[in-house]
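Example record

Each entry pairs one chain with its bound ligand, heme C.
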Amino acid sequence: MKKPNLEVALLAAWLCAATLAADDGVFDQYRDLMGDENPAVFVIDEGEEFWLTAQGPNAVTLESCDLGLGPGVTAGAYVRFPRHFADTNAVMDLESRLVYCMTTIQGRDLESVTAKPYSLRGDFGTEIEALVTWLAAESEGATIAPEQAHATERAMYALGKDIFFYRAGPHDFSCATCHEQSDKRIRLQALPDLTSHTGAAGSWGSWPAYRISQGLVRTMGWRLRDCFRQQRWPELQMGSEASIALQTYMAVNAAGGTMTAPGLKR
Ligand code: HEC
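Structure tokens for the complex follow.
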């Protein structure tokens, strides 16, 4: 992967130092200071480079990958996910669709492309994270519009809703325990009401996001996996039915909202 340049390194160092003292006020100050300067811009460029780089045994780029709007069409593709694909006869989220293209078009090994979808702290980001960030930016300003035309898409929404309200684990938490009201907070973090259109749209539309506290861009897939961890549930696998179902539930609740990602989060 490309080495970050000096500018990124300095910005990262500054953010890291500033984060030590982060509270809500300080976080708002960063945002004001940074304006449009979301460090995710570097990750967007990197994602496009990955898309255009020939890789795998077939030594081809991802340019013929069909994200639902036809091979190679990237503008406006993100806001339609998760969606049904005829070639796999399944509802896929963007991450699992990318994995599908890497294995079928580039001929890459499934195990190696899924081995480490999300970076650990201190990393510089993964290929999946960069591609998702670029593709989200390719939909910036577009209206969130997942389809519910296919029976499998409606079934995914219903499953996502069931999981959202399903209580389990040592604390008997569901997603709804923390995300069903708009006035809840944990420590200083405001928790969005993901059952409401406003809450879901603000949230779905702002991921992937640059996490200041981690110095990394994170995808919605990672966000959900981290909430599974907070809920003390087993680790959520990228591209699993549970992950796609929850994303479908949130995206459909968010429909009609605007894509603003990549976002900037504490
Ligand atoms: C124990 C409380 C808790 C539970 C249970 C929980 N979350 Fe979260 N969730 C959080 C916290 C805290 C944050 C904010 C994290 C941060 O800002 O660092 C968050 C953030 C999120 C966000 C991003 C919000 C935004 O706008 O940035 C989404 C989406 C989300 N959770 C979805 C879920 C889903 C889906 C579930 C169920 C699988 C779930 N969460 C379960 C505490 C929880």
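The pocket of heme C is lined by residues 173, 175, 177-179, 186, 189, 191-192, 194, 202-203, 206, 223-224, 227-228, 230-231, 246, 265-266 (CB under 6 Å).
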